[in-house]
Structures are given as C-alpha cells and as structure tokens.
User: Which sequence fits this backbone?
C-alpha cells in the first residue's frame, strides 16, 4: 500500500481513484488518489475539504477529509488517534474521507470512484489561509521595533514574533484567528510587551496598511511540491513588493492576491498575556 497521491496543491477540485480501504465503523473511505485536502492531525489549522464520492448511481457525502495512518499489521488510525509522528516507520500515511451515513456497497475496495470537492468552501478556506500567512508577516513587520534582542527572522527579514509567540492558529472561511502568548519567556527574549500594549492601535493600523499594499500588488501565490504524495513536503510561495516569501505549509492557497478585495486584522489584548488576532478576507 502506498501513500495517497494528491492533486489539491494545484487547485484541483475533481479527480478519480481506486478505493483501497473502506471502514464502515469509522465511516472512512481511502482512495489511492484524491483532490481532497485533509485536516492535519498534528497542527489542525485548516479544516479538511468536504464534497462527494460517486460511482455509478451510488453517492456518499464527505463531511471532512482527514489524515489516516495504516500500520504494517493493518491497524487503521484516523485523525487525532494516530499514535505516531508523520513519516514514522511501520506506517503508511493516507487521506481518509469521513462520510455521512452508511457507505454504499458500490463504494468498495477496487472500485473506481469520482471525487468532487466543495468548490466554494475550498475557495474560502484558501483565501483564509493565504490571508493568515500575510497577516502574520504584517504583524511581524509592525512589531519589529519592539525587540531589544536579536531573534530569528521571518521570510521578510523581520524579527519572527509569529514563530516565537504563536500558540494556535485556526483557518476559517475567509479568515483566521491566531493566538499569541505574551508571557515571561517572550519578555526574556527581548520583546517589549508594555510598549506593545501602549501602542496597539498604531500597530493594528500599520498591519492593515501593509495588507492593503500587498493586496493591491496582485502578486502570484502558489504551492511548490517536492513530490506527488500526501507525505511529500509542500511550500507556499507568494510574490510581495518586498520580495518573494515562502513557508512550509500543507494547506491550500489562492493563485493570486488579485483574488482579494481586502484583508484586514483586528487585534485584541483584553488579556494582557494573550494577543488574539482576527483576520478577515473579502473576495474580489
């Protein structure tokens, strides 16, 4: 058994494949190739795609694509129940399609099926994920002068606040919510938390100014892949006025910043120890 071949990095929404596993108890169908993007079980920032699987007149709704792992002994683990890190020896990594209700008998091992992703949800999550990355870069830039010590830099050369402080990220349709811990360790690393709190309005305005400039540039956005399977590394790249940026990223993204009418953020520091950044994208 081989790892699932994927086509979602190219923006594909429809594909065909051969069913390699059906588990009625877990309501999961595994196919050798899929256009569905699965939620990552270790960093579940972007939800999995939804859609349908069909063969002939048989049809089943996919409620969410997920990661699954199958041990060499044939044990199936789904999503958060996977007991090993990705790439762990003795396991094959695949994309599972969680289904709504009983899986029709025609969708059986060996059957050739058609897989179709919900295009509207995919598009809105792709906008949300790209907007999330851009917002993090703009946040780093807007906070750059608040560091008293040298730390690692982000892809634009600014101090990597995102990498140091982010504790959770959740992509949602046309946006995201990111949480950053502003604790003692960040202050010891040289971050001026008090100065940030005193100037949060100015920082938010600067972030939104940068985002408006970047959206206006209509730069190319793409995903480069190291190989065709779900376990191969994928990198998001985007052309900005300051230069091309790149992140290792397993999610989906827009093809151009021209797909946005706007991207804006709101910063919330109601808890002095926790910054919440809400990013909102509007489609062009």
Assistant:
């Amino acid at each position: 058994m081989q790892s699932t071949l994927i086509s979602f990095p190219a923006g594909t929404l429809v594909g065909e494949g051969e069913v390699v596993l059906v588990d009625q108890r877990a309501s999961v169908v595994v196919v050798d190739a899929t256009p569905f993007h699965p939620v990552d079980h270790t960093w579940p920032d972007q939800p999995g795609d939804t859609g349908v699987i069909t063969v002939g007149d048989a049809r089943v709704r996919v409620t969410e694509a997920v990661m699954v792992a199958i041990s060499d002994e044939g044990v199936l683990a789904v999503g958060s129940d996977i007991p090993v890190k990705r790439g762990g020896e003795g396991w094959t990594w695949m994309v599972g399609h969680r289904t709504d209700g009983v899986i029709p008998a025609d969708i059986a091992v060996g059957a050739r099926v058609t897989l179709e992703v919900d295009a509207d949800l995919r598009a809105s999550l792709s906008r949300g994920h790209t907007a999330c990355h851009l917002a993090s870069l703009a946040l780093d830039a807007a906070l750059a002068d608040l560091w008293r010590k040298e730390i690692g830099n982000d892809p634009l050369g600014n101090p990597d606040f995102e990498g140091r402080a982010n504790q959770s990220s959740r992509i949602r349709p046309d946006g995201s919510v990111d949480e950053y811990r502003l604790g003692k360790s960040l202050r010891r690393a040289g971050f001026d938390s008090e100065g940030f709190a005193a100037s949060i309005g100015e920082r938010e305005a600067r972030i939104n100014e940068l985002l408006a400039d970047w959206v206006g540039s209509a730069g190319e956005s793409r995903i480069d892949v190291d190989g065709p399977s779900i376990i191969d590394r994928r990198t998001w790249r985007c052309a900005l006025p300051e230069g091309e940026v790149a992140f290792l990223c397993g999610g989906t993204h827009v093809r151009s910043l021209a797909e946005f009418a706007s991207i804006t953020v709101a910063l919330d520091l109601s808890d002095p120890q926790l910054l919440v950044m809400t990013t909102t994208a509007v489609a062009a």
About this structure: The CA atoms of residues 44 and 170 lie 7 Å apart. The first strand starts at residue 5 and ends at 6. The chain has a mean pLDDT of 96. The radius of gyration is 21 Å.
